[in-house]
Amino acid sequence: MAEAYQNYIGGEWVDAQSGAVFENINPADISETVGTHPESGREDVLAAIRAAEEALPAWRAMSAPARGKILFKAAQILEERAEEVGRDLTREEGKTLPEGKGETLRSVELLEWYAGEARRLTGETYPSGQPNTFLYTVKEPLGVVGLITPWNFPIAIPAWKALPALVAGNTVVLKPASLAPISSVHLARALEEAGLPPGTLNLVTGPGSAVGDELAMNPAVKAVSFTGSNAVGTRLYGAVTGRGAKCQCEMGGKNPVIVLKDADVEKAVDLVVAGAMWSTGQKCTATSRVFVHRSIAQAFTDLLIEEVEALKVGDGSKEGTQIGPAVDERQLKSILGYIEIGKNEGAEIAAGGRRLTGGDYDKGYYVEPTVFTGVRSNMRIAQEEIFGPVVAVVPFETFDEAMDGANDVEYGLSASIVTGDLQRTFEYIDRIETGLVHVNAQTAGAEVQVPFGGYKGSSTGTREQGSAAVEFYTQIKTVYLHFD
Fold it and tell me: pTM to 2 decimals?
């Protein structure tokens, strides 16, 4: 029987005030309900905001190192449960067990990092032009912050948003994605058991039209951090900043890999397969386009097709599965729709391109990993984020042609180049219009201690993770202390 989960408000696990619930379905086997969750309304969000307001003075007054100790204890708790949390993550989101456990352990790393960051929340001192004056700055929390997180990294993204906010002295209301909310429950439980004071973190599940909109518009919420689609993020950013609050949006990507003629073809293919196909391509940093020098394009494409066709697609909880299902029917239809768009635009399917059916495939939302050739830069499949295991191969003649193609999209999140040419490498680093730049590595993946975010339509400018994340959740106070 599916577990009945609850909201976490003011240190208590409670149902939605309406009593309404929604089901969380396993995308690998849609006959399985993984859990039921409160379908919260505006009244539930208001209760969470009030709880966060009430908890704020005491949490802000607690020393930052003391806050860090709570995060460090939560890291130990979550690490001990990594197998259980990883299994639940796989069941609700669809990614493989190694990916589910890996994401959980990444959240442990985030807890450890921000536990340490508690002792690095420093201001600066400045020489004053006035005599007998001590001039310095301090960082102060904003207050109550709202977090709206996606389904594709259902524990890591809530962690990398909530933890810098908490360690800086803010209180939090978190709205996880309805397709994968259990992972956020695990994070909240670990923090609760580690001693996080009641009301400091509140978790409310439910539709964006109720929960998300209230977080966006409530004047008590001083900042909102969002990860999701460009369409939603753009509207949210306007609404939040329009009332004078801070807003941070991480949105889409259309991430290129450039493979120069001196590249190791086998290594390049391995990097593209990992970047494009792991996690079913359902990540904003996934590889979507590959620009390959024409002299090696055929060899590269042949090997790419061979490796993609050999991938094992199936239930992520089963050993040996490499690619899990799409997260739900809507996402599956979107991926298949883009495949049809590509065909209609004149691109050629070199591998995959179909929904998988028969046997266990009929139980879930499975699609073949897909390779397109014959792709032009103005095609929709070369311009729009697909968010599935689909990659386009584009041959090029000159380096300038490859760079122009890589930059010719509205997004600018991540990019990679595969080469041993040092001059071209530094030229690529200088010219590529992305916030994350990789050399001889896949486009996906980011370490917890460095800034994460994109250029152009991928981000609204501020950065997540590392010390940069704390900047968004704090405000600077400049102090002139005259002592004459």
Answer: 0.96
